[in-house]
Amino acid sequence: MHAFPCGTLPLDFVGTYRARRNEVPLEKLAAPGHLDAWFVESGMFDAAPGADATDLEIALDLREAIYALVASRLDGQPMPTRAIAEVNRHAAGLPVTLRLHPSGATRTGSVAQGLAALAREAVGILGGDDAVLLRECARPECTQVYLDRSRGYRREWCAMRTCGNRVKAATYRARQHGNSGS
């Protein structure tokens, strides 16, 4: 149900609101169950935390605060103080619960614990050396953000298998269409 092209959970979390520039963006966290699914699919939790409508509202507020901070970094603008406060408030929360068992380990917790983990990682990205690696996908319809760790720092798309292939295919079709008219 969810995609994880960024390699970092806070940025993948921001990407749950897809195509932000489109007239009708796509909300991937439209219900509490979708938030539960995101936590499990991301590998953050082994079992759904049992999100409710209030949890979802809080999660969406955090997601938008992280996005506001990322967008300000991308635009070279000062980070909004309200978004900083929101992220810091969550980052101070309890960590995800790890338990060792004879057969391995489990990761469980509440929605608040999952959001705390996302916020802490976002603080590390936005407040550390990785902030200069932040990029937004070059496909006009996509607004996914990612860290560009490519050699030469020339990555253009959130994921080659989706956006990169779409852009290259569209460019190829346009070139073929242009050549057929000659």
Detailed description of the structure:
This protein is mostly helical. The chain contains six helices and six strands. Strands 1-2 form a two-stranded antiparallel ribbon. It has a two-stranded antiparallel ribbon with strand order 3-4. The chain has a two-stranded antiparallel sheet with strand order 5-6. Strand 3 and strand 4 form a beta hairpin. Helix 3 crosses helix 4, helix 3 runs parallel beside helix 5 and helix 4 packs across helix 5. The mean pLDDT is 89.
Secondary structure blueprint with pairings:
Elements lengths: L8 H6 L2 E2 L7 E2 L4 H10 L11 H23 L5 H11 L5 E5 L2 E5 L2 H16 L7 E3 L8 E3 L12 H21 L2
Antiparallel strand pairs: 1-2, 3-4, 5-6
Helix pairs in contact: 3-4, 3-5, 4-5
Specify the biggest β-sheet. 2 strands, antiparallel
Instruction: Report the helical percentage.
Output: 40-55%
Mean pLDDT across all amino acids: 89
**How far apart, in Å, are the first and last alpha carbons?**
44 Å
